[in-house]
């Protein structure tokens, strides 16, 4: 009877053991498999690109210095002119007459001054002989001094008349390309009227602005020695910061420029700092007022840890990634991202270290504190020397 009573327990025992095995199977099967990378420091060329606008390196408005009838235009609109070329001719006849009048007045004043000098010599001699009074001597001296002043005034009037006559010939103050004429031949113009504009296109400037936060990050990385400028050193011992221009259609401009000016203060309204790059423009392929993209070169981020965009998530406290511990447990790690690389990866300034395993695919399957199995993909580490050569 005891044997029979024990036999009926056997099926129950088998059911319990089977349930335990199923539970173990389910536990093994519930551990997700994800893709991950093992991060390592690399030297990465930074991809810093900004909206920009072109501007002539020199731009001068040519204005009339005297009024009159515009007789002739001596250039073709839109043509290149050299410094000193005659651009316009204003009717000179009224100014020739004014010059002749001033010259005649000068000659008359000179004659009067000569007579006054002779009179002063006679009066002075007679005064010493006590033939004339002191009053006569003083009057002769005052007349002489007045005529000397009149002579200076007459000479100034001649100079002014000559200058006005010279201004009837309008020359190019700089070399460059002319704009459309503002007034046509035969028009009556006044002093300071705009006649045309001359713009120097070679070299050409590209003006852009960078945000205060971005500049602060770059300055901080420079202080920490995390950024290297791989450009050549110029004649005064400074490293040039090279730049490239990209047209709106995505094509690169063939010439390489350099940053030649950084504004001394930040714009309070926009929170940006204005910078300027200078580019050779021998073929006039860049035109003033053109909107382009400017890309800075020669900047390499040393020992940068990067992760793909898909690995970075945003939480209430900021950006984070999932990292696998040595026990294959998922950890949520807060990170501070820097700039993006040319291929769209994020540079991680803080939060990760060399050798960390970061989950890149299967993020929806895991949660912090749970186990995971990782398929670690090989990451090709860039050669620092090769990366530096790319931005030269």
Write a concise keyword list for the protein shown above.
392 residues, 23 strands, alpha+beta
Report a brief summary of the structure:
The protein is α+β, with helices and mostly antiparallel strands.
Arithmetic mean of pLDDT: 83
Low-confidence stretches: 23-28, 380-392
CATH class of the domain at 31-46 and 302-390: Mainly Beta
Shape annotation: elongated
Q: What's the order of the H and E elements?
A: HHEEEEEEHHEEEEHEEEEEEEEEEEEEH
What is the level-2 CATH architecture name of the domain at 31-46 and 302-390? Answer: Beta Barrel
Portion of residues in helices? 25-40%
In total, the number of strands is 23
Largest sheet: 6 strands, mixed
Coarse structural class? alpha+beta
Strand content: 25-35%
CATH topology of the domain at 31-46 and 302-390: conserved putative lor/sdh protein from methanococcus maripaludis s2 fold
- Number of helical stretches of at least 4 residues: 6
What is the terminal separation in angstroms? 95 Å
Query: Taking Cα atoms only, what radius of gyration do you get, to the nearest Å?
Result: 42 Å
Secondary structure layout:
Blueprint: H1 2-7, H2 9-30, E1 33-38, E2 42-45, E3 48-63, E4 68-73, E5 80-81, E6 86-90, H3 93-128, H4 134-167, E7 169-171, E8 176-178, E9 188-189, E10 194-211, H5 212-223, E11 227-229, E12 242-246, E13 257-262, E14 272-279, E15 291-296, E16 299-307, E17 313-315, E18 318-324, E19 330-334, E20 336-340, E21 346-350, E22 357-361, E23 373-377, H6 384-390
Parallel strand pairs: 1-23
Antiparallel strand pairs: 1-22, 2-16, 3-10, 3-15, 4-6, 4-9, 5-8, 6-7, 8-10, 10-14, 11-16, 12-13, 12-15, 13-14, 16-21, 17-18, 18-19, 18-22, 20-21
